[in-house]
């Protein structure tokens, strides 16, 4: 009996030791494969002397002199001073009582007593303070109060909500200074899984693992699958990447937070013409309206975000988004027309459900009407007209209840924009030497917002792969105001032409749906059907786009 007891104890101890050994082995392997660091005890505040600081998830930070950043927590907390943060994926930093998120870009934070100043450089910033929130579009700045009132709080109606969310522009010298500093914060691949050419299907033995071991096995499988996805994307294997994303054997691991982080990083590396941008962004923003909003306001991601259905938002978040979206339309590349149409529709619904719609609309128009004159002064008559027409339409149900000052301001904006609308038919598309290019932006090279929507050059060719023809057609119309819906289809007819169906293009007052054939070599649009009516002529691309926007 004595020997049996010893043998029994040995059999119990061995599995426990094995589990501990496997657990240690997994974390060492996980740390090596992802670049993640094992937790360190005693880590804490860092200062400007620390140089570039790794915040994890591909994000890095640079502190100003005298600043203190506590890196012992996730997210890191800026205790005082200023920090410049950048990253390819999802970026998160805390400051005071605020939690701040960005994505695929850079922003700067400053803590001064109880105030947090947010300067959104190349990424918009989503700010959460308690139950209240704010979005700072790229190119703008905002100073947070110690207490941020929500949309329905206090006895002052909507006044406190609007007065604490005033945005202002970033000085050019500040942008130049920070963009220069970003050269020392170049991105790295440490947070990505290693590229993996081959991937085995999950083994059935994993079904019999204990819960803790099964979870570790799932995380390890996620690293392998994400590494395989990275390999396919880096080798332009769009078909293989899509097949992997849709493989039911990996569906559970692609819903992990780790997968969301990797998707956000890989998303930034895909060209605007890649249809996989829609797939990856849909997974990044699934059930996360804050991340969708960051993409929808992002100068380089918004053309993709507006193809995706808007996630559900509570009244607080939606009110903030309705306030800030038109204010983000300050970059050389105009906000997609679909965005403004959906903004108008969402604002109308919000007003209908509001307890005091006239008060909300009055405060909203006070903020947005100055943008009409600003747009005209900057040489943007089309966006000025769009905003003016939208505000006038939104005001119509409440006209008798609006103040004379608001009514007069709306009338003045309508008169100004009606006189100044000039559609530019000179192409965003130019041709020469047998090749055609699509220029998505017209800003200065030193302007971080000058090249919007990742503008790409599309070269003509007589021997393109048919899948490339479809992708290039998508890139051309995504970069030039085409509005994609779930019904939009692009099918390559041959190595030169694609058939586009169900594409919306916004005119000055109305949206129209078009079917047509697009030739990537000659830039000719033919077999045009508008709203079900066949049109007789073929037309060059730039003329077609200008005509469609009339």
What would the principal axes of the Cα set say about the shape?
Answer: globular
β-strand percent reads: 15-25%
Number of helices: 16
Q: Which class do the helix and strand fractions yield?
A: alpha+beta
Helix content: 25-40%
Contiguous runs where pLDDT drops below 50 for at least 5 residues:
1-43, 421-463
Overall residue-averaged pLDDT value: 78
End-to-end separation in angstroms reads: 95 Å
Task: Output the radius of gyration.
Answer: 26 Å
Largest sheet: 11 strands, antiparallel
**Total beta strands:** 20
Question: How would you characterize the overall build of this protein?
Answer:
With 550 residues, the chain is α+β, with helices and mostly antiparallel strands. The protein contains 16 helices and 20 strands. The protein has helices spanning 2-34, 159-163, 172-181, 211-234, 238-245, 257-269, 276-284, 289-297, 302-305, 315-324, 337-353, 357-377, 381-395, 404-420, 466-478, 541-548; strands spanning 45-46, 53-56, 59-63, 68-70, 77-95, 98-112, 115-120, 125-129, 132-136, 140-144, 168-169, 429-432, 435-438, 482-483, 489-492, 497-506, 511-519, 524-530, 533-534, 539-540. The strands form three sheets. Strands 1, 2, 3, 4, 5, 6, 7, 8, 9, 10 and 11 form an eleven-stranded antiparallel β-sheet that branches. Strands 14, 15, 16, 17, 18, 19 and 20 form a seven-stranded antiparallel β-sheet that branches. Helix 12 runs parallel beside helix 14 (404-420). The longest helix is centred in the N-terminal third of the chain and has 33 residues, at 2-34.
């Amino acid at each position: 009996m004595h020997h049996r007891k010893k043998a029994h104890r040995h059999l119990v101890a061995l599995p426990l030791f094995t589990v501990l050994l496997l657990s240690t082995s997994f974390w060492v392997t996980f740390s090596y494969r992802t670049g993640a660091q094992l937790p360190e005890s005693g880590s804490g505040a860092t200062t400007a002397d620390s140089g570039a600081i790794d915040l994890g998830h591909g994000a890095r930070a640079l502190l100003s002199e005298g600043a203190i950043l506590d890196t012992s927590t996730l997210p890191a907390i800026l205790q005082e001073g200023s920090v410049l943060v950048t990253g390819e994926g999802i970026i998160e930093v805390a400051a005071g009582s605020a939690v701040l998120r960005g994505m695929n870009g850079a922003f700067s934070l400053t803590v001064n007593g109880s105030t947090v100043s947010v300067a959104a450089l190349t990424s918009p910033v989503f700010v959460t303070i308690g139950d209240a929130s704010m979005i700072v579009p790229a190119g703008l700045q905002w100073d947070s109060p110690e207490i941020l009132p929500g949309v329905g709080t206090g006895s002052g109606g909507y006044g406190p909500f609007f007065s604490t969310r005033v945005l202002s522009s970033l000085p050019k010298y500040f942008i130049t200074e920070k963009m220069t500093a970003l050269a020392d914060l170049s991105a790295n691949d440490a947070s990505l899984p290693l590229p993996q050419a081959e991937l085995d299907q999950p083994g059935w033995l994993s079904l019999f693992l204990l819960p803790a071991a099964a979870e570790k096995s799932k995380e390890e499988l996620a690293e392998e699958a994400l590494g395989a996805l990275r390999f396919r994307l880096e080798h332009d294997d769009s078909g293989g990447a899509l097949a992997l994303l849709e493989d039911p054997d990996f569906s559970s691991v692609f819903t992990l937070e780790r997968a969301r982080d990797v998707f956000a990083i890989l998303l930034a590396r895909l060209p605007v013409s890649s249809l996989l941008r829609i797939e990856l962004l849909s997974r990044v923003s699934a059930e996360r309206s804050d991340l969708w909003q960051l993409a929808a306001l992002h100068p380089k991601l918004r053309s993709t975000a507006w193809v995706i259905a808007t996630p559900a938002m509570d009244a607080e978040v939606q009110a903030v988004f309705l306030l800030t979206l038109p204010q983000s339309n300050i970059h050389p590349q105009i906000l997609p027309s679909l965005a403004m149409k959906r903004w108008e529709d969402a604002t109308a619904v919000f007003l209908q459900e509001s307890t005091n719609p006239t008060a909300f609309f009055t405060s909203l128009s006070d903020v947005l009407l100055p943008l009409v004159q600003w747009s005209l002064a900057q040489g943007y008559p089309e966006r000025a007209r769009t905003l003016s027409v939208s505000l006038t339409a939104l005001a119509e149900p409440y006209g008798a209840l609006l103040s004379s000052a608001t009514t007069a301001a709306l009338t003045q904006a309508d008169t100004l924009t009606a006189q100044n609308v000039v559609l530019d038919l000179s192409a965003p598309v130019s041709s020469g030497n047998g090749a055609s290019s699509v220029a998505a932006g017209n800003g200065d090279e030193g302007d971080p917002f000058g090249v919007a929507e990742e503008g790409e050059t599309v070269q003509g060719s007589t021997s393109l792969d048919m899948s490339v023809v479809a992708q290039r057609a998508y890139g051309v119309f995504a970069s030039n105001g085409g509005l994609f819906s779930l019904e939009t289809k692009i099918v390559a007819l041959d190595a030169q032409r694609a058939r586009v169906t169900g594409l919306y293009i916004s005119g000055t007052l109305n949206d129209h749906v078009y079917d047509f054939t697009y030739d990537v070599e000659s830039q000719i649009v033919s077999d045009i059907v508008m709203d079900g009516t066949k049109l007789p002529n073929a037309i060059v691309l730039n003329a077609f786009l200008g005509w469609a926007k009339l």
